[in-house]
Amino acid sequence: MAKSCKGLAEELVKCLSESTCVKVEKRSIRDCTGEKSPCIPSECVGLRETYFNCKRGQVDMRARIRGNKGY
């Protein structure tokens, strides 16, 4: 279960590294993830929300019994 969100994390980093927030504005990926900036594509925003839900499912006791929905 610890690695069930790994694929989402890799996709999110890949998406953000190709965004204008990182390329043009020369900001770090960590700075770009925390913001709701218009320079971040909607695909990355969707991946960020899915990754958040995956991580939240790891601490949810009901999901721990059933197992987290993998990527």
Automatic annotation (TrEMBL):
Superkingdom in the source lineage: Eukaryota
A Pfam family matched in the record: Pet191_N
Keywords (A to Z) from UniProt: Disulfide bond
InterPro entries: Cyt_c_oxidase_assmbl_Pet191
Listed transmembrane segments: none
Gene Ontology CC terms: mitochondrion
GO BP term, example: mitochondrial respiratory chain complex IV assembly
Coiled-coil stretches: none
UniProt keyword Disulfide bond present: yes
Keyword match Disulfide bond: yes
Family classification: Belongs to the PET191 family.
Protein name, entry field: Cytochrome c oxidase assembly factor 5
Organism encoding this protein: Arabis nemorensis
